[in-house]
């Protein structure tokens, strides 16, 4: 070691915060440090395998036997974890071990401080900063590393106590790869036992396809031997009839670091025009970054059993980003890049097939185990809704997967399928009715629903932000059209029975004419309605106009929106309307009509452009 070239660096603030959490907060499952370091070693070996195939001229052509080795030095209280993976350059050491170069860091740190200790341990793996878990058990961590392309006899040594700074220096190294030395805390001596290390590896890393060896020292013969601990065979390449449920679950935990077991999975080997294996998992819970669209989500890609890349997003549409697993293709070239992968005909076929397989898997779950499917929907329903707009080819099966609240389910939980809704439609009903609103409560209590409750016609209550956007693409289900109850529609009028044809009543006609004159260009139209029972008036948008809810979405996104001109519908049977009809004073009558419009818009939008005028108008009418 040459002290002259040693340089001290300060950790970035987010790493300091993370290290503080590691050292002071995470005690529930300390053994995860070994799982994370082995996972990193495995990734490094997968990378060198790929590089040797893709850029063979850069690397030596000697026979390559990948391995991860673990040694224990009880006397010095150290664990040494070595691999012959790709290693790191000095610049990569600073970049990878001194900073967290991943979007959503602040969000991650905020979340990790507000969850249970057990789940904190799993978050570390999901976020990809597992190396820092070394400091849970170690006073000092030393990393010796040399990049495989480095032809010199020197590598890099990184050392830190996890207290705000680290040192980097050039050291003599013959072989490429990485060696991590953990100087254990006095309280963590249990990890100096071979049996304990074996137990942890069997628990977390048994299915890693790279041999993991532990050093055994024979006191009698004074010789060293290496014992392979793990199975070292890729699980997905095995015959699925020979794989246990527990093995599938353990492999899922290994690739996702999830605390929960998967909800369901599908393992298939396909032969024919396309040859590939896929192992796909549906999780029970969402990852912390599912809504961070800048973070990548995707499958692990292997070609001919050789690891190519993580987070290959090209094989699944974005609305299935929660799916985890691997795809192992026999048809893609080993030297494929993300750019070529995007345009590959093989990729397009695989994407199409895998998408259909996942949707079918979910459809079967909804039929065979509705309770389990409901758990899935409660977590991932919002993401599935994106598919209606994104995937027109599979829209029919996606529509089958949708779940809704409705008047008749009388439950905020979305548990009504469209199939069930259409089966329950009354004889006269020709459309699927729905309402979009800001919340379940406001949807349920909307005056638009009064006639539907009276006629026992169910209405879907849509209150997720995505719903209005989704319904622009979901126009029908099994040849039955959707209809918003807050938009004008002839089919609704046919459902409304009027015993007395009051529309021809001269008195009402004159009343409507007066309303139109007063409101003039503030409204698109005014008319009588019999859809209301307890409300004097409502406003509707015309069938081809932008809905109120869509206007809210545009406004929230800072987009310009056209001024909505509403249709004002008056309930002639309401006592207030009967009272207004009798008002002789023109100014008073005008105030009442303006008030009707304003309160109807307030009920529809939840706000008014000028609430002060509205309040003044009410006050004037109160004192008359």
TrEMBL record:
ATP binds at residues 36, 40, 83, 88, 96, 102-104, 126-131, 178, 338. Gene3D superfamilies: 3.30.230.80, 3.40.50.11260, Heat shock protein 90, C-terminal domain, Histidine kinase-like ATPase, C-terminal domain. Belongs to the heat shock protein 90 family. Residues 553-624 are annotated as: C. Homodimer. Residues 1-338 are annotated as: A. This is Chaperone protein HtpG. GO terms for cellular component: cytoplasm. Molecular chaperone. Has ATPase activity. The gene is htpG. One of its GO terms (molecular function) is ATP binding. It is found in: Cytoplasm. The keyword Lipid biosynthesis does not apply. The lineage of its organism: Bacteria, Pseudomonadati, Pseudomonadota, Gammaproteobacteria, Enterobacterales. Keywords: ATP-binding, Chaperone, Cytoplasm, Nucleotide-binding, Stress response.
